[in-house]
Amino acid sequence: MSFTFFAIWAFTAAMALVMFRESPLKVVFGMLAGYTVQHMAYEMYNLVIILMGANKGSPMGFYGDGGVMPFHDPFVAVIYLCIYLVTYFFSFLFFGSKIEKGEKLKLTNSYILVFAALLLVVDIVLNAVILYNIAGEGNSLYLAIVGIYNVVCCIVVLLLMFEVAMRRKLEDTLHSLNLLRMKERRQYEASKENIALINMKCHDLKHQIRNVRGVSTLGEESVKEIENVISIYDSAMHTGNAALDVILTEKMLSCNQSGIKLGCIADGKSLDFMREDDVYSLFGNLIDNAIEAVSQLDEKKRVIGLKVRAVENLLSVNVHNYYEKPITFIGGIPQTTKADKKYHGYGMKSIQYICRKYGGDLSINAENNVFNINILFSLDPNDRELSV
């Protein structure tokens, strides 16, 4: 009987290799997971039948002559269907749902997959041996213990298999975040130097324009227009935090070019507990997300508000803006609306990473077409768990 099951599984796996454009390792992963879930459901059914005493006539269950076949009795048939539905549903909920639709699995550690397959094979073979040699004695307690053991083996197999898939996914995400953070550090250093140089040059130009005002052939209106243009680039923010000044100045210039109003009330000195590159990354991603949302709206709604203030031992950060497109939340975090999710959504992940790094509390809500991000940091070093 076990050989028959393995032959059916091997045939199905072979057909899957023909029908799907996937590597043999991924096909084996899918088929092994499916077989494990089916075997677990079968063992759960046998366990319930044993505990109910419905196997008195045939303790060997499906293996016996005319055993407890599920559809010979309507009541047993309902139990059979319910157990399979519940087992399949929770298997999908705890394992299958971890793999997003369209996501490509990256399985590199084939050793764990082989170990999981061997564990399942041993479990099935031992189960068959027990049924043929011991089940006939009708010891329900012993059979129940064996059934529980079989279910636990199936759960362990699924945990091992999906641990391989999920660990690789997390490694890829962490690698992408590290690359993003390195890029942001370089960008911060470059922006800091560029903005300092621009401000210095603009300051000099303003003095030179004053000197030529009386002798220039340009009209007064033209001179004022030049002064206004220069003043835009000479409007560096002064919040008390160098990194915050750089990112706000940079984003102010970007918003001015796009017709977006960026209002800011910030106590930058309260951010001294954070590294400069973390400040640059956090507020850069917060404002970038807001700019992306309002850039598609009418001019009246192209407004972004930023507040950074300290209240006793807490630092509050709030960014709010209008939005129109529907927002999907998963686990309290908005998902990217871009089609290619593989290369987007890392800005929000970076925000989460920095919040966790400094023991911050992140909350997001979207009501009445206003999107709010609120972050609370403790200013007490004893309450802040810094995890590098």
Helix residue percentage: 55-70%
- Count of alpha/pi helices: 9
| Rg, alpha carbons | 32 Å
User: How many DSSP-defined strands?
Assistant: 7
Uncertain spans, ≥5 residues at pLDDT below 50?
58-68, 339-344
Distance between the termini: 55 Å
What is the makeup of the main sheet?
A: 5 strands, mixed
Strand percent estimate: 5-15%
Give the helices and strands as they follow along the chain.
Answer: HHHHHHHEHEEEEHEE
Task: Write a concise synopsis of the structure shown.
This protein is 59% helix and 11% strand. The protein has nine helices and seven strands. It has helices spanning 2-19, 24-52, 74-94, 110-133, 140-212, 220-233, 242-258, 276-294, 346-357, and strands at residues 261-266, 303-311, 314-322, 329-330, 333-334, 361-367, 370-378.
How would you explain this protein's 3D organization?
It is a single chain. This protein is 59% helix and 11% strand. The protein has 388 residues and is α+β, with helices and mostly antiparallel strands. The strands form two sheets. The protein has a five-stranded mixed beta sheet. A two-stranded antiparallel sheet has the order 4-5. Helix 2 (24-52) packs across helix 3, helix 5 packs antiparallel against helix 6 and helix 5 (140-212) crosses helix 8. It is elongated. The protein starts with a helix and ends in a 10-residue tail after the last strand.
